[in-house]
Amino acid sequence: MLTEAKMIELTTTRHNELIDPFLQVWGWEIPVYLFLGGLVAGMMIIAGYFFIKGRDEGHQCICYQIPLLGMALLSLGMFALFLDLEHKAYVWRVYTTFEIKSPMSWGSWILLLVYPALLVNFLLHVPAWIGDRLPFLKHGSQKIQSINNIKRHVGKVNLVLGIMLGTYTGILLSALGARPLWNSAILGILFLVSGLSTASALVHMIARERSESEMLARADNLFLTVELFIIALFFIGLLSSTEVQISSAMLLLTGPYAAVFWVFVILMGIVIPLLIQNLSVSHRIQHTAVAPIMVILGGFILRFVLVQAGQYSHYLNAHFIK
Amino acid sequence: MFDSLRHTAAHDGYGVKMDSISRRKFLKIGGTSLALTAAAGPLGKAAAGSSRENVRGVQKIPTFCDLCFWKCGAIAYVEDGKLWKVEGNPLDPLSQGRLCPRGSGGVGAHFDPDRLKYPLMRKSLRGKEEWVQVTWDEALTFIADKMNKIKAEHGPEAMALFSHGIGGNFLKHLFKAYGSANIGAPSFAQCRGPRDVGFRLTFGEDVASPERTDIRNARCLVLIGSHLGENMHNTQVQEFSEAVANGASLIVVDPRVSVAAGKAKYYLPIKPGTDMALLLAWMNLLVSEKLYNQAYVDRYGFGFEQFAAEIQPYTPEWAYPETGIEPELIRATAREMARYLPATLIHPGRHATWYGDDTQRSRAIALLNALMGNWGVKGGFYYPVSMEVPAYPYPAYPHSDRPKVDNPDNRYPFAHEVNTNGIRKATISGVPYPVKGWFVNATNLIHALPDEQETIRAIQNLDLLVVIDVIPAEIAGWADVVLPESVYLERFDDLNVEWFREPFVALRQPVVAAPHDQKPNWWIAKKLAEKLGLGHYFPWKDVEEYLAYRLNTAGLDYGRLKREGIIRGEKQPVYFAEGVPDVFPTPSGKIEFYSLQLAQAGFDPVPKYTQPAPPPDGYFRLLFGRAPVHSFSRTQSNRVLMDMLDENEVWINQDIATRWGLKSGDYIRLKNQDGVISNRIKVKATERIRTDCVYIIHGFGHNARQLTYAYQKGASDAQLITRYKTDPIMGGTAMNVNFVTFELEA
Amino acid sequence: MARFAMVIDTKKCVGCMDCVVACKTENRVPEGFNRDWITTEARGKFPSVQMEIRSERCNHCDNPPCVHCCPTGASHVHTLGGVVLVHHDLCIGCKACLASCPYDARFIHPEGYADKCTFCIHRVEKGMDPACVSVCPTHCMYFGDLEDPHSPVSRLLMARRYHAIAPEAGTDPQIYYLI
């Protein structure tokens, strides 16, 4: 609307791979990682909440299923992250320093702490089929359970690390001010809430206790509603900013990414599952996997479209015509 | 290269006879230098190469560039025996130590994986690009046998040489020794010929190359059909930029908003083909308002009154409907020029073969400069000077009774260089006598001459076609024998005794060894001469002996030249005010505003305007030009330069593009008025060009399959130039007379 | 303390790409990649077209986001002149720096690390100008220390009008284009 056809011919002789004609440094690997990271972060917060509120009595508590699944999902995400690297042999260099201004450095160290947290959480209740095969885990489990108030502590640590993990994935993008679409502080909160919503959806599906499942569905509805609100704030912020931000917002609202955004992120990722889940928590319809799966897919596509559209958004006047 | 009377003696070594006694004496005198060169090895190449390859660290070897014909002094850097980069030689007056992008990318010529590597002989039909590799001896023996046969059957004049650049000097010498003076380069009839003839007819002298334009000191610079900045002749661009930075008033006339037009104070978006009308209107205004340099014209002009009378009808109002330039703009720009005279320079351009009246148009430019009073004056045209380096004392060349073949009956009475198109026509027709053999060196005739079918027809009439080149370009595909030449970084060439603002001599010497079996042209010429029984025309053992001899005779130290690359001479006067004699070698001895010799030959004594034919409906005039990173069709195999620009684009006016449903980045084909369809070419939809023409960069659209990287990248303008108009005064082939339409992809 | 910068006179620049070629050969930039490039801006309708031609590269910003976002410290500010450089053996190739640059000045070298213009620091430390500045046939490029009031760059910025590219991106770029 505001930025089309300004009668400026901008040409460049540059032809760098991944950079021209527009930035394409991150493909599917980063969205997958961001999604899984957010998902695991949400799961940790949920587990943490359960522990802190003392709702961990039953052996079927979801808080005991979360850590193993979380470690698996997180490992998948980190593997995707590793695949994205162009200088893989040097990956260990992230752990030779802490760069305080780099969200990626923060993330590397947070992840380093998340694994032990999840491991300790896991050790609180080792399932029989694992414990029988690996008795040292059973032994460790007993040792940990003997620590005073351990569950409360684990809960707090999980909660805090989960919030950090979920938020940092958004800050990872928002710190890259050169991409106007990402240049919004709200991305941190958005990814956190989206992570909570996808985690709630997933955990709701796999929870064995009916009451937990119900509670998580209600929580998910809350998170989805808040997420809608945050997305609205995100766009309000961009649209009331400068020309480059406005045109970047339009990429999603009316531009090349609009179809994916409106259909898969908003409609099928939030609004329709919200409606379905509202009906199911008020017992008008059965709980099925439909809504949660839509939420989970919507969460992934949110990351995917933000990463792609963000790379397309550009500070200078127009995309170069070579 | 230009060949005006003054320069012939210095360059061509005519007629210095040497008997055997004095030759022996010479050998004795030259003993020391011979010993040195003997130590260096008979070929120079092997020794130079291997000694460099084993040295650790960085070596800097001076030479001069060959990416175009400017011959800028360069310094090549070799690190650990491997060629690293090429920079300018700070001693070089032409480049001032800074090469243009082509020169900076010269390493790409050495590393080009597609370059010619071994002598080749045609295996099947001409043009099928099927060859068999042979030894040098086989190839040269074959050629010598054929040449001897041709000489016996048709006379030595039946062999013609097309050679462009200083690399051909030894081949030219061979041809003259063999007995043929049919030696030409496309630079005359396909490029700057009309310009030089137009200026000769006016001032008695050529514009020359490097152009004798004092751009650096111009306070007003007019570019009409010159795209300096995209045309990258180094000194010209450096001086252009200097003038702009010094606040020179820039007037640019171009159907396209060129880079220069983007910097202009006045930009005139002229309708293609109407430059003559604008020039006449400018002159009309300057004369009628008495703004021209009256003192200068009174002193040096001949026939001014008749000239003034002839141009009286050409008012700015008359020129407006022809050119599309408003009368007030014509007036304003003429007055602007007058404001700064005599330091107002109307650049004569370089490639001048446009519409068929190009000599007259160049003469109009010369006359406009004469009205400024800038010939021989600072800010206008200076008198180039050179060092005195005697030619090598060769035996006299055999005398020929027959005239050169290119200009039968002296049809083009004012052509002072050989016309390549004339050689081609004679090869097809056999008139005035048959031409049965061609050597083509450092010019890709398929891209250089208009109407490639005519070139191919001529080639099919030949008994022998030899191509001596560095890359397997289109012309090589038609050859019977292809001889791989080493690139400039790998060889010695003739001395460059340049004509410029200040005198200097430059050396080209090997920097690295040729990677395969490529040989320098001096070796090829000498070996072939020996096989032809003409070895006595190459009496020196190797080229260093030749170079050292010439330099020593001039009182210059060869060793110093090898180390420094350039030896500069004392500054000499270049302006009248500095002492250059203000005499003009014209029939009248003055600047000919009215040319009696033209009138006597049946041509217009004062230029007249011819309206160009309009494009057919739906067609656009095809214009072409240069890119600063490429030279003609010879650099599209250079990977460094192709990394800068690997295809050309067709510039189409934005409104026209929209009407055709095209946008930048689309690929289309161009179809010309004769139905010839080009290769795919990318569209550049832009506001920077008129609606009645399109523009592409020359040299792309290669269809030589051995040029693997260049193959079919972009489109070839040469392929679309099927029609040309012949300039009646000097025989130049005007090429801006073709029209194209667009063939969209499905 | 020095602050290196480049000043480029767009009035003189003809966009010939000599700077690009010289950089390529001097620094052995791999085929297909550009550390510097030419940007042409044309505004207006024929025949009233205004043009600006710029030789562009990494701006060696004084507030470099590429340095801030690097998780390993590979991307860093050199001890001399504020030049932004990359330690190849610290780089993991995460490409955050590529995404963080508003000028898209970086690229991934075929060997896997992030690469870009280095202001030819290897030449500057020997008292020479960067290759692009040294080669420019129109003499439109200048390099020097902004903290030295007598350097060519300081003098030009006092005498002529200039602009930087997208200063609103907030990175404080140190390449100035004279207009």
Q: Could you describe the 3D structure shown?
A:
- The complex is a heterotrimer of chains A (322), B (746) and C (179).
- Chain A is an all-alpha fold.
- Chain A has helices spanning 29-52, 62-84, 103-123, 128-131, 135-145, 150-174, 186-206, 210-239, 243-253, 258-281, 290-312; one strand spanning 8-12.
- Chain A is built from eleven helices and one strand, in the order E-H-H-H-H-H-H-H-H-H-H-H.
- In chain A, helix 1 runs antiparallel to helix 6 (150-174), helix 7 (186-206) packs antiparallel against helix 11 (290-312) and helix 9 crosses helix 10 (258-281).
- The longest helix of chain A is centred in the last third of the chain and has 30 residues, at 210-239.
- Chain B is of the alpha/beta class and 746 residues long.
- Among the domains of chain B are: 39-114 and 489-518 and 540-569, ADC-like domains (N-terminal domain of TfIIb, Single Sheet), CATH 2.20.25; 212-384, Dimethylsulfoxide Reductase, domain 2 (3-Layer(aba) Sandwich); 620-744, Barwin-like endoglucanases.
- In chain B, 33% of the residues lie in helices and 16% in strands.
- Chain B is built from 27 helices and 27 strands.
- In chain B, the strands form seven sheets. Chain B has a seven-stranded mixed sheet. Chain B has a six-stranded mixed sheet with strand order 21-23-22-27-20-24. A four-stranded parallel sheet of chain B has the order 10-9-8-12.
- In chain C, the strands form four sheets. Chain C has a four-stranded mixed sheet. In chain C, strands 2-3 form a two-stranded antiparallel sheet.
- The radius of gyration of chain C is 16 Å and the shape is globular.
- The chains are: A mainly alpha (322), B alpha/beta (746), C alpha+beta (179).
- At the A-C interface, strand 1 and helix 3 of A face strand 2, helix 3 and strand 6 of C.
